[in-house]
TrEMBL record:
It comes from Bradyrhizobium aeschynomenes. Residues 1-56, 427-459 are annotated as: Disordered. Residues 429-459 have a biased composition (Low complexity). Signal peptide: none annotated. Gene3D superfamilies: Glycogen Phosphorylase B, Tetratricopeptide repeat domain. This is Autotransporter strand-loop-strand O-heptosyltransferase. The keyword Transferase applies. The keyword Glycosyltransferase applies. Residues 53-116 form the Autotransproter heptosyltransferase TibC/BAHTCr-like N-terminal domain. Keywords: Glycosyltransferase, Transferase.
């Protein structure tokens, strides 16, 4: 706890002084190798706390909990407590001055102030409906992309009015994607507005854990934001909105980026990039380099665009690079900003890095590191990264082993990882990263966009149609009572609901007949009707549920057409609606079933996109919800069958993550449920099919487990 005593107000030269921790730990302050301090990169809070209390007290939570105590004569007593842990953090008596908590990350503070024996103020941290600032450093791209979703979680948790301050180049990526968040540059910050401010960054020298509760090197670069902001650390890519989202070129292509800010981030194998570009071209892909610079030199090290790659380098907006990435078959890059951008837009990322541990970045099944070489120095707290040293190599600099962490990563290793991407070399861009139709290329894929209604000109041929469409068509069409007599709404509104249900039914008939264009038109018309109703009555759960039903059907059609970004957008919108309904009506079993279903749908499309870690999280949410539902109705055979199927799908989600043990564990749980179902239902064919499928999957997993070498 920091305390600064003020001079008496009778002193005409009184200037309040704010006590700060040591400069080396200040947010955004960097030190060079000699320990000299650079200027702060993050703006300080207002000099005077922004919230007014009784008798001239002022307080806020800008850069910790702050209290300003005027000299009114009697002594003050100030106590700070942590509401979560029930610990008293600080308790002091003083005449006047400024009290600032020693911890500057999020803590649910209770502030109590007495004058003599009278309790004047008891304030528990509550940001709901208040202005909160989360500020990020300028000059970094990947860090902010990795941190953004945790700021979104903070807003959702605290229901605050959130402002995010960041570099100007990043704002266009997020502004349209998050219209309920204000995005500003550091120069635009109005510090006196905010109830609370949190600085998210990498604090290399914060040994006292002032600005973060745990060292980022231990928890991962992006997850440190979760710990600073006090939210769930589960990673989630942020949404990115592009004003121009058309496919840049018609042919299948792969994006690469070979440059980074320091040499340790590069793939230092001298033949690596040329070998991989030649391999990709042989596999039928154009190779597009989207670095900012085509060439860089650091001492004896020179990196330039591979000879056979196509040059799309230059000072271009991040939104343009995101457009190239969104339609690429995959992206091959380094531990740098463009890899994080590719992750955010949903493109499979082959990430080559040796100086960082894989836990440092987002989860990708295509992460490449050579554990036989020196590695992971960035995540070793014994080594302090030097921003000023472009040839930083803390263990082997100046020796033949310098940068061996990536120099010893072979092109054959990268080729093997590329082959493991589903569909690689067989029209990947059309199968798992679909080529949009002309109508879809005209605008971003959003649920309220005409591109949703356009679709492609024909359904996918062959027998690979997702089960999701047929299953969806068998589900209820929403809470609609025929005859315009829906309970709780006017006759006119009830008739509109009838019309919306009729449009969905007609769309279902068209979809069953294989006429997906007509199906999309009917579903779109249903959405227009229900959206009109929800605008008039935004709190009507029945209207909202019908909107979710139509969105999910649109998503299923887009899935069949292999428009995976469009399907993801539709399913995500449907999930968001049901999540709100479930939160508002916690005992509504129908909404809970819908929520479980929405998680399963999103898992389908995420798995098809190669985003297996995210797909797994949705499978896990689905299994948890179905378990709750099945426990409420242990005699409901259909629910028990859904539970067994849900666990089977969860086991499937473990496999692409390389967790065969986890898959086997969950498959066996599903098998136990299936055996119980067979005993109770007289060898029902559906239960039999599930049983046989599980046995085959368990055999396959056991074989894979035996082939996996035992760690020495």
């Amino acid at each position: 706890m920091n305390v600064a005593n003020f001079p008496r107000t009778s002193d005409p030269t009184m200037v309040p002084t704010i006590a700060m921790p040591s400069a080396g730990a200040r947010p955004g302050v960097r030190t060079d190798a000699a320990g000299r301090l650079d200027r702060p990169r993050l703006p300080p809070p207002s000099m005077v706390p922004t919230q007014e209390g009784p008798q001239g007290l002022r307080f806020d939570f800008n850069d910790g909990c702050r209290v300003m105590l005027p000299d009114n004569g009697p002594a003050w007593r100030v106590r700070l407590s942590d509401l979560e842990t029930a610990n008293v953090l600080f308790d002091i008596d003083l005449r006047s001055g400024h009290v600032n908590s020693s911890k500057r990350y999020f803590i649910p503070f209770r502030l109590e102030v007495w004058s003599e024996d009278e309790l004047l103020l008891r304030h528990d941290y509550d940001a709901s409906g208040r202005d909160v600032l989360i500020q990020f450093p300028v000059g970094t791209i990947g860090d902010v992309i990795g941190w953004m979703s945790y700021a979104v979680k903070f807003k959702a948790l605290h229901q605050c009015r959130l402002t995010c301050a960041m570099g100007e180049a990043l704002i266009p990526l997020f502004r349209s994607a998050y219209p309920d968040i204000t995005f500003v540059t550091h120069e635009m910050i109005q510090a006196e507005r905010y109830y609370a401010t949190y600085s998210v960054g990498l604090f290399f020298d914060d040994a006292d854990l002032v600005y973060h509760p745990c060292d980022f090197r231990k928890v991962g670069l992006h997850r440190v934001a979760a710990h600073i902001l006090g939210v769930d650390p589960t990673e989630r890519p942020p949404r990115v909105a592009l004003s121009e989202d058309s496919r840049p070129i018609a042919e299948p292509y792969v994006c690469i980026a070979v440059q980074a800010t320091t040499q340790c981030k590069h793939w230092n194998n001298p033949d690596g990039w040329d070998s991989i570009v030649a391999f990709l071209r042989t596999a039928g892909y154009r190779v597009i380099c989207i670095d900012q610079k085509a060439e860089s030199s650091r001492g004896a090290y020179r990196t330039r665009i591979p000879e056979e790659a196509e040059d799309q380098t230059g000072d271009r907006p991040l939104t343009e690079r995101a457009r190239w990435l969104r339609h690429a078959a995959c992206f091959i890059g380094l531990s740098s900003g463009l890899s994080w951008l590719a992750w955010a837009v949903g493109t499979p990322v082959v990430l080559i890095s040796g100086f960082t541990d894989p836990s440092n970045e987002f989860a990708t099944p295509y992460r490449i590191i050579n554990r036989h070489a020196c590695n992971s120095c960035w995540n070793d707290a014994r080594h302090r990264f030097d921003h000023e040293d472009a040839l930083w190599c803390p263990r082997w600099k100046g020796t033949p082993r310098q940068f061996e962490c990536t120099r010893l990563i072979k092109a054959e290793h990268v080729e093997a990882i590329l082959r493991s991407i589903p569909g690689f070399g067989q029209g990947l861009s059309q199968q798992t990263r679909p080529q949009a139709s002309a109508a879809q290329q005209a605008a971003p894929a959003r649920p309220d966009d005409p591109a949703f209604a356009a679709g492609s000109q024909a359904a996918s041929a062959g027998g690979d149609e997702p089960i999701a469409l047929a299953a969806l068509l068998a589900r209820p069409r929403g809470d609609v009572v025929r005859g315009g007599l829906a309970i709780g709404v006017t006759v006119a509104a009830g008739r509109l609901l009838d019309q919306a249900a009729a449009q969905i039914a007609e769309g279902d008939r068209s979809a069953t007949a294989g006429d997906l264009i007509s199906a999309m038109q009917n579903y779109r018309q249903s959405i227009d009707i229900v959206r009109h109703l929800t605008q008039a009555e935004p709190d009507n759960g029945g209207f909202q549920r019908n909107l979710s039903v139509a969105l999910n059907r649109i998503g299923a059609v887009l899935f069949v057409q292999r428009n995976l970004p469009g399907a993801y957008a539709a399913y995500s919108a449907g999930l968001a609606i049901i999540q709100k309904l479930t939160a508002a009506h916690r005992g509504h079993l129908g909404f809970q079933r819908d929520l479980a279903w929405c998680h399963a749908l999103l898992a389908d499309v995420l798995a098809a996109q190669g985003r297996h870690a995210e797909a797994f999280e949705h499978r896990r949410s689905n299994a948890a919800l179905v378990t709750q539902l099945a426990n409420t109705a242990p005699d409901d055979s259909s629910l028990q069958q859904s539970l067994a199927t849900s666990y089977q799908s969860l086991g499937d989600a473990f496999v692409p993550l390389g967790n065969i043990d986890g898959a086997l564990t969950v498959y066996r749980v599903s098998l136990g449920l299936t055996k119980r179902g067979l005993d109770s239902n007289g060898q029902d064919p559906a239960w039999n099919q599930l049983y046989n499928t599980l046995l085959q999957k368990i055999r396959t997993a056991l074989l894979a487990q035996r082939k996996t070498p035992t760690p020495s």
